[in-house]
Prior knowledge:
Layout: H1 6-9, H2 13-21, H3 45-56, H4 77-81, E1 83-92, E2 97-104, E3 112-118, E4 124-131, E5 139-149, E6 154-158, E7 163-170, H5 171-175
Antiparallel strand pairs: 1-6, 1-7, 2-5, 2-7, 3-4, 3-6
Helix pairs in contact: 2-3
Amino acid sequence: MSLTTYAEVRPWAKAIKHQVLTRRMPPWGAVKGFGAFRNDRSLSLPEIALISSWVEGGAPEGDREFATPFHAHDGDEAERQAGRMRVRGAHVLKRPILAAGVSVGASVRVPWLQVSAHRPDGSVEHLLWLREPRPPGMLDYWFLRPLALPAGTRLVCQPGSAQVDVRFADEQAVSGRPGGQPLPAE
Ligand code: HEM
């Protein structure tokens, strides 16, 4: 069903309140505070409170003059060109990469999923924690900032039966791009 206009949304107001209060909608799944993502579409607490009180207040139509234009996250060039590295269990990097995100496929059927990167110097980056990944579950989690990971870094995906694609740009390719600037890394 479409929820893009007031007329389409109004009959569903009560259900919408329930969906956002239980955080079932919009589907996102990543545990807060574990990684940071630029396409995070989950709602903030003030947004949830706003929707909930709008429904309680009779779900009135707003002033069209203040309506924000509708736009979807289409992804940028860097996201489209990002390579994929399959990680099932553990995978040790043979060359440095700039990790850009994690893609979780629709076939993942596990009660929870965690992805982390263990650098050779002992530092650990927590990349993603999903609770109850469920179909369609096909989602790309793009990091707020690309992460420089040296050769020898161990990428770990748990539980061992699950697999994800770590999305990356080749560090050499990025810094050697004609006229290109290396992406800022932490
Ligand atoms: C009556 C209330 C709603 C119902 C029954 C509903 C149902 C669904 C279903 C069945 C799906 C696809 C399967 C899934 O991911 O579980 C979906 C996807 C989605 N819903 Fe809802 N939804 C509701 C309200 C909302 C609201 C209020 C939002 C935003 C605040 C929202 C945002 C989304 C988004 C972003 C997707 C994913 C679309 C995509 O990836 O293409 N939904 N919804």
